């Protein structure tokens, strides 16, 4: 049993209610006359993990920047924590935590020193020791930032986002570049945030991550929301035909299958695929046929379309999207200016925060 199936789904949704933390209606944004967010609606409920998926250039980054209060919109209604993010103050920003894709932190400080420093920038911070424990860095509390691995730095970045005890946390590609073990640990941390009643707005390119963590998922493509739902029901996954796939035994062809199977069988990549509305009935017929040919169907697979299959089907159209320049001041606040194109560079400074800049080529430096 995988870590995701063993740990995460049991708690999924247990702290969610119907209070909307994020409410968006008719959101629009254009760059140079080209509309990149085309009147979208979305709602995020308190206490849930909401995964926002989409290819590069779909309008995902621009939407998230507007929700975070770092980009203006051209139209529509947006409410985040009962405020319009276009006109918020430091008190509102203290209720929001941000984890960007890549951050550089002062190498000479220890984990304990840096988390403690950030705690001083918020009116009601969490306990530093408890926060360090939460992200799994208790045994590294006295290590300097320069001595941490990439995965440990990512955990530290999460700790800095959480130290202000935010109600809403934006996680931007939180496990990019992680090995499988580090990714699963990060999933545990995110699951623990749900247990604390936090609302998580997650962007990720890993479909298994969205499947494991999210209560609900939205997919944006070409500036429009093309599907919303739970990971299990998104795009009609729960109603899709089952795919039965196997390799033919030597000397057998599709025509030798039982008639009810050969009529619907397709050969793809050297394997037979059968789309079945009643998989048990199809498997019964297939099993009898296989035994008659002395084959045990050793590579037989049965399943419905994966979340990745649905995602790829729904995101066929893509369009360019924008970038970020952001700077957090020593007082703990963050000012930002995002450009219509590019990638992200972020740097945390000992003075209290984070500077970020997206490069014109779309790459990330940090």
How far apart lie the N and C ends?
36 Å
Residue share in β-strands = 25-35%
Give the C-alpha Rg: 24 Å
- Count of extended strands: 17
The H-and-E topology, N to C, reads as HEEEHEHEHHHEHEHEEEHEEHEHEEEE
User: What percentage of residues falls in helices of 4 or more residues?
Assistant: 25-40%
What is the average per-residue confidence, as pLDDT, rounded to a whole number? Answer: 83
What's the total helix number? 11
Strand order within the widest sheet?
Answer: 5-6-7-3-8-9
Main beta sheet:
6 strands, mixed
Give the low-pLDDT segments.
Answer: 1-11, 318-366
SS content category: alpha+beta
Description:
This protein is α+β, with helices and mostly antiparallel strands and 366 residues long. Helix content is 26%, strand content 27%. The protein contains eleven helices and 17 strands. The strands form four sheets. The chain has a six-stranded mixed β-sheet with strand order 5-6-7-3-8-9, sandwiched between helices. Strand 16 (345-349) and strand 17 (353-357) form a beta hairpin. The longest helix is centred in the middle third of the chain and has 16 residues, at 180-195.
Summed up:
With about 375 residues, the chain is of the alpha+beta class. It has helices at about 5, 60-70, 90-95, 110-120, 130-135, 150-160, 180-195, 205-215, 260, 280-290, 305-315, and strands spanning about 20-30, 35-45, 50-55, 75-80, 95-100, 170, 200-205, 215-220, 225-230, 240-245, 265-270, 270-275, 300-305, 325-330, 335, 345-350, 355. It has a six-stranded mixed beta sheet, sandwiched between helices. Strands 11-12-10-13 form a four-stranded antiparallel beta sheet, covered by helices on one side.
């Amino acid at each position: 049993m995988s870590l995701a199936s063993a740990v995460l789904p049991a708690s999924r949704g247990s702290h969610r209610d119907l209070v909307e933390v994020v409410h968006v209606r008719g959101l629009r944004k254009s760059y140079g006359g080209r509309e990149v967010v085309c009147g979208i609606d979305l709602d995020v409920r308190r206490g849930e993990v909401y995964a926002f998926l989409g290819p590069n250039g779909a309008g995902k980054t621009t939407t998230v920047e507007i929700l975070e209060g770092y980009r203006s919109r051209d139209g529509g209604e947006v409410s985040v924590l009962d405020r319009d993010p276009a006109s918020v103050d430091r008190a509102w920003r203290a209720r929001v935590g941000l984890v960007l894709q890549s951050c550089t932190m002062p190498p000479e400080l220890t984990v304990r020193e840096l988390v403690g420093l950030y705690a001083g920038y918020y009116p009601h911070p969490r306990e530093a020791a408890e926060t360090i424990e939460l992200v799994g860095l208790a045994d590294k509390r006295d290590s300097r930032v320069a001595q941490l691995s990439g995965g440990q730095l990512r955990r530290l970045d999460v700790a800095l986002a959480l130290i202000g005890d935010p109600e809403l946390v934006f996680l931007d590609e939180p496990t990019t570049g992680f090995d499988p073990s580090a990714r699963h640990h990060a999933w545990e941390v995110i699951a623990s945030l749900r247990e604390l009643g936090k609302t998580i707005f997650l962007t990720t390119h890993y479909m298994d991550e969205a499947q494991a963590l999210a209560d609900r998922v939205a997919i944006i493509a070409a500036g429009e929301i093309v599907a919303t739902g739970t990971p299990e029901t998104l795009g009609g996954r729960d109603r899709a035909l089952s795919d039965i796939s196997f390799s033919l035994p030597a000397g057998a062809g599709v025509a030798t299958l039982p008639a009810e199977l050969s009529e619907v069988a397709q050969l793809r990549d050297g394997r037979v695929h059968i789309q079945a509305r009643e998989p048990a009935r199809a498997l019964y017929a297939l099993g009898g046929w296989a035994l008659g040919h002395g084959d045990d169907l050793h590579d037989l697979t049965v399943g419905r379309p994966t979340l990745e299959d649905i995602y790829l089907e729904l995101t066929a159209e893509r369009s360019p999207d924008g970038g970020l320049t952001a700077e957090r001041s020593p007082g703990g606040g963050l000012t930002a200016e995002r450009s219509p194109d590019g990638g992200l560079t972020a740097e945390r400074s000992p003075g209290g925060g984070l500077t970020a800049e997206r490069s014109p080529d779309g790459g990330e430096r940090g």
